[in-house]
Backbone:
């Protein structure tokens, strides 16, 4: 008997974006985000924290996005970002759970 995941688990619509680095008119660095994939996902908050760096308060929030595994989601990697609920999360890692090709977990961090 194979394990299945209830469809209602994946109840949030997310957009995975790839980032392209370039230069503006003056030669300064820029980043452009383009949609890589739009999928239904489970959103699991993992916690967060605050710290002071360079005289500024920095708050972080870690979230794990769980998606059905497919040829596209298995290629999600760091240097991509996830957009959800008007928030943007940097991808820290992504992996196919137990390499079973059923579910991909994407560990992210939002920095504000």
Residues:
């Amino acid at each position: 008997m194979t394990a299945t995941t209830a469809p209602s688990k994946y109840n949030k619509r997310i957009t995975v974006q790839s980032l392209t680095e370039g230069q503006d008119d003056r030669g300064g660095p820029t980043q452009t985000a383009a949609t890589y994939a739009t999928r239904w996902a489970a959103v699991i908050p993992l916690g967060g924290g605050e710290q002071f760096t360079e005289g500024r308060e920095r708050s972080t929030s870690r979230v794990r996005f769980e998606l059905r595994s497919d040829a596209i989601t298995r290629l999600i990697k760091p240097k991509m970002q996830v957009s959800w609920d008007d928030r943007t999360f940097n991808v820290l890692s992504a992996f196919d759970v137990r390499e079973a090709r059923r579910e991909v977990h994407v560990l992210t961090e939002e920095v504000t």
